[in-house]
Amino acid sequence: MRILVLHRLPANEIRYAQAIDHAIHQVTYVGVKDRLANLPDDLPCTRLERPGTDDVAHEVLAAVAGMPHPDLVVALAESDLIPAARVREHLGVEGAREDAVLPVRDKVVMKAAVAAAGLSTPRFLALEEILTSSTRKIPWQGPTVLKPRGSAMSQHVQVFPTPSATLDRVASQGIPGGGQSTDFEIEEFIDAPVVHVDGLVVDDEVVVSQAYRYEGTCLEFAEGRPQADIQIETTPELSRWASDCLKAVGLRTSIFHLEGFQTPQGMVFLEIGARHAGGGTMDTFELATGVHLPSSYLRLLMSGGTERPEPRTPDPENLYADFIYPCVPHSEGRVTIQEEARFRENPLVRRWQQRAPETAVAHRLSYAVADAPLGGVIGPAASTDLSRYVRELFDTVVVRYETA
């Protein structure tokens, strides 16, 4: 089989070599220079560099021009899902097209699909729709979220006290990040804990899943505060909700990362991605279930859907959590970490990664543990014990940033 991989995520995170028999298949990786550099030197494959300055699909097609068409186009990074769909369509390769990918990339399209299936979502409107409306009628009052329709990691997400304040901000200061109104939406703010369910669905059947509760939100992480993902029991109710959401957006065979608000009235959909979670969550998922999501998904693709993982059922008294502190919000900076010793030495700690004193850290928003000033994995323990550790950690440990 000829396989084309849009390569962006670290190779050791995906485990390409273990999932794909490179001696049997002809594998071509297309990526920017620094990403190609993280592929193992001895991996038998073709490596094609793209500039990384233009449309991804155009660059990939230019890189493979003149080569035999692939039998399979693979993309595991969320930002590459639509480019991969366009590459498939241009080359006539089987697999998801752009219209099938939009419900897991465009937050307006996905919530419309979920609402149409009778599931609860926040009320929402495309920003362009409300800006061009003659009445500007908004069916809710109170806190309102302005967010991009397709970005990840809560980039350029802002919360305002009312819909009017949101529109006033757009009118006076423009679109966050210099974006276009067509690329944004507004939605009502839901004040409730956020949980997520991660897993693998095959032909509409969820073959493995695990539920988590956030300690700290993605928006708070983007604003500079730490975040943790704490495993909780994957109840029958959460499993049914996840299955219903997957069917609503048409995600039939894929990795998935599904987020929702846990309200007294039941789950309210937040968003879904055809990807594995960032940070250490992929590691805690494997610790609890025995399944490494990206490589399991790749083996599934290689086998035509027959090689399914065989997960174990997590013990509710032996669950895991991961935590991460965000990168410095400056173009250059150094970090100092204080009061962490007793947490590092706690027997719950399974992995602890900490920057050496006064070392520079990355400035970009990232859930990659390698970029973070501090991160780790704890467990096994009950969810209550994991939560107690994380809350004390966040209340005590001081991470100071200084510009260089």
Descriptive report:
The radius of gyration is 21 Å and the shape is globular. It folds into three domains: 2-95, Rossmann fold (3-Layer(aba) Sandwich), CATH 3.40.50.20; 123-188, Dna Ligase, domain 1, CATH 3.30.1490; 194-403, ATP-grasp fold, B domain (D-amino Acid Aminotransferase, Chain A, domain 1, 2-Layer Sandwich), CATH 3.30.470. The chain is of the alpha+beta class and 404 residues long. It has an eight-stranded antiparallel β-sheet with strand order 13-12-9-10-11-14-17-16, sandwiched between helices. Strands 3-2-1-4 form a four-stranded parallel β-sheet. It is built from 15 helices and 18 strands. The N and C termini lie far apart (50 Å). The chain is 29% helix and 27% strand.
Question: What descriptive keywords fit this protein?
Answer:
404 residues, alpha+beta, Rossmann fold, Dna Ligase, domain 1, D-amino Acid Aminotransferase, Chain A, domain 1, 3 domains, eight-stranded antiparallel beta sheet, four-stranded parallel beta sheet, 27% strand, globular
